[in-house]
Amino acid sequence: MLVDSVIYDKNTLEFVTVTLEFCALMETASQHTLYSFTDKAVKITPLLYLKATLLPDVEAPDEDHEPEHFITENTYEAIRYHIANLLGEYDSFLETFHPDISYSDTPIAATISENLADVYQDLGDFAALFRRENEEVMKQALYMCRENFRAYWGQKLLNALKALHAVRFNEALSSAEDGFLTEEDIE
To answer: In this predicted model, what pLDDT tens digit does every residue of 53-112 receive, in sequence order?
Structure first.
């Protein structure tokens, strides 16, 4: 059996690795302090964006077969809730790239938690499909992930990163944590 070079491409494997790290961070948000979560998030999100831009081209799969979804609405809501709870008053930010912004006289609010949960939903499904180790399913998952990155979650990731940056480097929060990572935060 020939190994599909797109699936086992170096850039694909690095993307899968970063995806798993991102998903793990989202799944364990409730176990972090505000500082440790935002510190890790501002490091993993740009790396995830970079790795997504380096994914190899994949041929479109048969249109009649929709990939399976694993991230349920309950899982999505749990992730969103834990992140929102952790961020508290820092969760909301003004959305600048909303499609309706040019028609609005008032700012449009968004939340870091919803943006990250949206990204998690796509990447969680991608990771679950990739774990199946079925090359056709893996190729389809890679194709869908790449397309969804371009059309949807890439911008969500960048929106969240901009807001996370403001939280992470907030003077009041940084000085409260002394700006130093503890050994627990480094793990």
So the answer is: 999 999 888 766 777 899 999 999 999 999 999 999 999 998 866 555 556 666 678 999
pTM: 0.86
Collect all residues with Cβ–Cβ distance below 8 Å to 24 and sequence separation of at least 6: none
Using a 10 angstrom Cβ sphere, with 0-12 exposed, 13-18 middle and 19 or more buried, the burial of residue 166 is: middle
User: Which amino acid would we find at residue 111?
Assistant: T
**Cα→Cα distances 41→18, 48, 104, 119, 155, Å:** 12, 10, 31, 13, 16
Residue from 20, 35, 39 nearest 120 by CA: 20
User: Which residues are bridge partners to 94 per DSSP?
Assistant: 109
- The structure tokens 């499609």 sit at 99
Report the 10 Å Cβ neighbour count for 177: 16
Cα–Cα distance for residue pair 132/151, rounded to 1 Å: 25
Q: Which residues of 86-110 are buried (b: 16+ CB within 10 A; e: fewer)?
A: bbeebbbbebeebeeeeeeeeeeeb
Q: Residues for the chain: how many in total?
A: 187
Alpha helices in 88-179 (DSSP H): 112-130, 135-148, 154-168, 171-176
